[in-house]
Specification:
Elements: H1 2-21, H2 32-43, H3 76-85, H4 92-101, H5 108-116
Length: 126
């Protein structure tokens, strides 16, 4: 009976050694390249910026001058009366010369004549 137990124990030991050879534990699955990369990332310390690094990049701030209130003219009444007495210039006088030069109807008349024109007959598609 003891020989059967010894045979069983030896077969279990052989199976155990085979399974240990193909271990899937977390230690065996670590990626060495990833570990080195992460170690280098953790050990990296960026260089401290210089105290005068902003010079030449940022403009110095200067407060804008205070705005001045508009000054009213001394003789406001006389300027208003001169404005009322002035004749307005009409823009239609310049356009009349241009309209005499053109031969055909323009503006609204041309648009209305376009709308009243007969549309060409549509060709029948097969």
């Amino acid at each position: 009976m003891s020989s059967a137990i010894l045979r069983q124990a030896s077969s279990v030991a052989r199976v155990a050694t085979r399974s240990c050879a193909f271990s899937t534990s977390a230690v065996a699955r670590k990626d060495l390249v990833q570990e080195i990369y992460l170690q280098q990332l953790r050990s990296y310390k960026p260089p401290a910026p210089a105290k005068d690094a902003h010079v030449g990049v940022v403009k110095p701030y200067s407060i804008p001058p205070a705005p001045q209130a508009p000054a009213l003219p001394a003789d406001l009444a006389s300027e208003l009366s001169a404005y009322d007495a002035a004749e307005p210039t009409l823009a239609t006088s310049a356009k009349t010369a241009e309209s005499e030069e053109s031969s055909g109807p323009t503006g609204a008349e041309a648009f209305l004549s376009f709308l009243e024109a007969d549309e060409p007959a549509a060709e029948a598609h097969h």
